[in-house]
Specification:
The chain is built from four helices and four strands. It has about 100 residues and is of the alpha+beta class.
């Protein structure tokens, strides 16, 4: 499994519905689990800055990660991008191969 970070920014309309955040987040998570059952979530965090949330998850490939991002957009994210992460230890190993 590969590790991905999903950065999302809510649309202004959804951002105004913070009281509904728990139910909206649950609906998003339920849909991801239904359409991408192989995805394993590692952590969910709210952010103060350029993005509203970051979710760390494992997926088998980039196409599955793209589906997670698209589900986010469908559920009210203004922006959603999944970025693949390489464990630091592996990065050091790759650097030593140069």
């Amino acid at each position: 499994m590969k590790t991905f970070f999903l950065f999302t920014k809510l649309s202004p309309e959804v951002g105004k519905r913070m009281k509904d955040r728990a139910s909206l987040g649950r609906a998003w998570l339920d849909e991801v689990r239904d359409k991408c059952p192989e995805v394993k979530f590692v952590g969910h965090y709210a952010l103060l800055g350029d993005h509203d949330f970051v979710d760390i998850y494992e997926a088998p490939d980039e196409e599955t990660a793209a589906k997670v991002s698209m589900i986010s957009m469908d559920k009210g994210a203004f922006q959603a991008k999944s970025i693949m992460a390489i464990p630091y230890k592996r990065l050091v190993e790759l650097a030593n191969e140069l």
